[in-house]
Amino acid sequence: MPERDAATDLDGSAGTTLDAAADDEDSPLAPVPRIILSGEVKNARDLGGTPLARGGSVTYGAVFRGPPLANLSQAGCKEFARLGIRTVIDLRIATESDSIPQASCVKQTATIVAAPLPVPYNVSPTDYIADLNATDSIARAFRFLGDHAAYPIYMHCTWGRDRTGVLAAVVLRALGASRADIKREYLISAETVGAYPVSLDAVLDEIEQRGGIEAYLAAAGVTAEQLASLRKRLVAPPP
User: Hey, how many other C-beta atoms are within 10 angstroms of the C-beta on 196?
Assistant: First the structure.
């Protein structure tokens, strides 16, 4: 059975302190999340509005996260079309994707990218780090995240929480989000499908132990050009 669907601990430790420019624990709370496809799927939202270093934020309407876009109603398909999503990054393994396929309206209008990460059966720190270690799939996801023509992008796993949470943390860290704001964004999932912040902390610790986000991405095969393109597309300047 895939990841568990309930949280047992929402009080993960603060973990390792990162550089001051990107880890101000006193940064404002993230804005109210922009929920999408309400009534169609649980835990789907826009990463837009997440605070970034130097007062910027993630651009709205560019990158979304959640569960599979399966069994969408006519209204759900209309909302999907309105969002203009051009690329769906599927982090599930093949058996999961085969058993719960994307809705027809999604397959007809979006490019489906398979970037499978290991199923985190125990949602443990070890499981989350295993997903971080699946660098071939992380690099494949960044080939699209680093391509302006691929946007808007929707990334998902089974619950939109664990594997998606790992990839979202990597993306947000690459954009300059603080550890505190990455965790706040992740914990939005607690309201609907639970959350495992101790496991997320392990991922953030591991990234820093490998020399930081740029060193991790370079070792994974993400190019400097892809990273620059990601930042240009997703960083909204301060108002």
Answer: 29
Return the DSSP state at 36.
-
Identify the H or E element spanning 112.
strand 111-114
Q: Given CA atoms 180, 85, 114, 195 in this order, what sign does their dihedral have?
A: positive
Round to whole Å and give the CA distance between 113 and 125.
26
Give the tens place of pLDDT for each residue, 105-134: 999 999 999 999 999 999 999 999 999 999
The answer to whether residues 181 and 172 touch, using CB atoms and an 8 Å cutoff, is yes
d(CA 80, CA 160): 17
114 phi/psi in degrees, rounded to 5:
-85, 115
Span between the terminal Cα atoms of the chain, in Å: 45
Q: What CATH architecture is 20-236?
A: Alpha-Beta Complex (3.90)
Q: Is this prediction's pTM over 0.85?
A: yes
Domain residues of the chain, as ranges?
A: 20-236
Which distant-in-sequence residues (6+ apart) come within 8 Å of 193 by Cβ? 5, 6, 42, 43, 67, 159, 160, 161
Determine the 3-state secondary structure of 80 from DSSP. Answer: helix
Residue at token pair 């309400």: 38
Beta carbons within 10 angstroms of residue 118's beta carbon: 15
pLDDT-derived band at 88, boundaries 50, 70, 90: very high
- String of DSSP letters for 146-215: T-GGG-SEEEE-SSSSSHHHHHHHHHHHHHT--HHHHHHHHGGGGGTT---HHHHHHHHHHHHHTTSHHH
Nearest to 111 by CA among 62, 64, 152: 152
- Between CA 44 and CA 32 the distance in angstroms is 13
